Amino acid sequence: MNASTIDFPVQMNRNESNAPGQNMQKPNSPEPEAHAIAPATAFQIGKLSVSFGAHTVLKDVSLDIKARSVTAIIGPSGCGKSTFLRSLNRMHELVPDARMTGTIRLFGENIYGPEIDPVVVRRRVGMVFQKSNPFPTMSISENVTVGLRLNGIRNKGILQERLEKSLKMAALWDEVKDRLNAASTSLSGGQQQRLCIARALAVEPEVILMDEPASALDPLATTKIEELILDLKKDFTIVIVTHNMQQAARISDQTAFFYLGELVEYAATRKIFTNPSVKQTEDYVTGRFG
Amino acid sequence: MESASHHSYRKGKNVLMQLVTLACALLTIIPLFLIFFHLLRSGFGSLNLAFFTHLPRPVGEPGGGMANAIVGTLVLLGLATVLGVPFGVFGGVYLAEYASRRVAWIIRFTADILNGVPSIIWGMAVYALVVLRMKGFSVLAGGIVLGMMMIPMVLRTTEEVLLLVPSGYREAALALGISRWRTVCSIIVRTALKAIVTGLLLSLARVAGETAPLLFTAFGNSVWSHHLSDPIAALPLQIFTFAIAPYDDWHRQAWAGALVLLLMITLINIVVRLLTRDRFAK
Ligand SMILES: Nc1ncnc2c1ncn2[C@@H]1O[C@H](COP(=O)(O)OP(=O)(O)O)[C@@H](O)[C@H]1O
Ligand SMILES: [Mg+2]
């Protein structure tokens, strides 16, 4: 397989693929900060504010997100968790009157730079939604490879290889390998969500954002997703919004607690759940409000 | 606790309501059966091979058929499709996916008015715009008037079914780093494709029976048309001409023509049903 024969940022070696700004590096103007960032930091978020029209939803949020770890975002409904997540792959821009200020760097590169195409950002930063949404007109295999095919990859060998690899990474291969051409809607809810994860993995992103990926699933399916997340963090940076405190405690390495659009506390998950510094955080994680 | 008599009163009202609505529902489908029955009785006898293969004969000569009118209707519908489908579908995509709220409102409002414009006015407009300019009735003018009538219908149904596609699919596609136009073509339109085709066919069925606008444009004739600038026959026109003439033989042929036209429209509707059987949004 030769990456130069296809017009898509194929990453051969995952261990090297998280190098700073690999996919978006401009030929002659590398960001000066790029050299100063340790590769262990995926996102550097500085003074991020987002508003929809006159409504300010996020205020001055600053935090760094570690690469190849799971970062959980918690907080009561409406505090801006989804908005925060969607600003990380510029999905919030789909809302016509959304406005963002501040900076977000991904492996040192400003993803809001004037010459950066949001489409390219989204290939590097994949997303899994609360409601599983496999494309209903497509089979299981077509769903997995759609991101590659619609970006011009025709080579059957590459598609087949990515199909199998992504389904295996999403722990779905054994369940569907005999019916890859079946309708995606024939799968159970949990399987559909893992299919969506496989679909996101197939384009080989560096980061995967998950917005309450298990909140519509039964406990067994939830457990599978959680195991999967722990497995994926070896290769990917994962940011997950969850309503479920136990889930955040079980799977995340760092936890950020948001309240009314502000970042109240951000620390190692163990600290947030056992010894938070802020009273509000303690009240929330112990279930006193939210 | 409510009394037993009150309970049975309410139950009675419920039954009455059911009967009334059932009667109304039945009344709406009875005309179709009456029409079919009548057309079969009056027209079936005149349906033979000659009806589909021969040109109409002059008054007094027995036999003849409506071959040119049948072909004419198909040609006119083909032209209307060529014109109506791209404008209607692309316009609908624009409306659903790209237009700002204000622009969408203006287009939607205009299309709704156009959908309510009586067909005879469409005929007069195309007469003024095309027939007078081309100095004659023509296939082209007939196709244009039917196509123009299709555009706002197709535009609105396309828009409506695209808006029915759950936004989750749009978001999922964009989040995969698929570009906007590819998302629109390959995900959203594809998801709604059957419903879009259904809208097309229904609008085609609607214009297939139009008579008034064709009187001003295609005009009709009783020979084969060879050029886009010739007048052309169409089933509704031929039915009209034959039905108002004082000859029994022509009346029988008019009935047969009406039967064929109704069967064509029924066929389109059956195709629609087959297409929508397994639709994405159940
Ligand atoms: N598309 C939008 N347009 C306007 N306001 C929005 C939009 N999406 C979210 N909001 C507002 O932003 C706030 C935060 O929403 P969200 O980020 O979805 O919160 P959370 O995910 O924490 O429940 C809410 O008050 C919500 O009403
Ligand atoms: Mg949310």
Topology, element by element:
The complex is a heterodimer of chains A (290) and B (282).
Chain A: H1 14-17, E1 41-52, E2 55-66, E3 70-74, H2 81-87, E4 98-106, E5 109-110, H3 118-124, E6 125-128, H4 140-149, H5 156-169, H6 173-176, H7 189-202, E7 207-211, H8 219-232, E8 237-241, H9 245-251, E9 254-259, E10 262-268, H10 269-274, H11 279-285
Parallel strand pairs in A: 3-8, 3-9, 6-7, 7-8
Antiparallel strand pairs in A: 1-2, 1-4, 4-5, 9-10
Helix pairs in contact in A: 4-5, 4-7, 5-7, 7-8
Chain B: H1 4-43, H2 49-53, H3 67-98, H4 101-116, H5 119-134, H6 139-164, H7 167-175, H8 180-191, H9 193-208, H10 212-215, H11 235-244, H12 248-276
Helix pairs in contact in B: 1-12, 3-6, 3-9, 3-11, 4-6, 5-6, 6-9, 7-8, 9-12, 11-12
Bound molecules: adenosine-5'-diphosphate and magnesium ion.
Using CB atoms under 8 Å apart, which protein chain pair has the greatest interface?
A: A-B, 25 and 21 residues
- Cα distance spanning the termini of chain B: 41 Å
Within the largest sheet of chain A, what's the order of strands? 6-7-8-3-9-10
Largest sheet of chain A: 6 strands, mixed
What do these coordinates show?
The complex is a heterodimer of chains A (290) and B (282). The longest helix of chain A has 14 residues, at 156-169. Helix content of chain A is 32%, strand content 23%. Chain A contains eleven helices and ten strands. Chain A has helices at residues 14-17, 81-87, 118-124, 140-149, 156-169, 173-176, 189-202, 219-232, 245-251, 269-274, 279-285, and strands spanning 41-52, 55-66, 70-74, 98-106, 109-110, 125-128, 207-211, 237-241, 254-259, 262-268. In chain A, the strands form two sheets. A six-stranded mixed beta sheet of chain A has the order 6-7-8-3-9-10, with helices on both faces. The termini of chain A are far apart. Chain A is globular and about 55 Å long. Chain B is an all-alpha fold. Chain B is globular and about 70 Å long. The mean pLDDT of chain B is 92. The structure holds adenosine-5'-diphosphate and magnesium ion. Adenosine-5'-diphosphate is lined by residues 52, 55, 57, 75, 77-83, 95 of chain A.
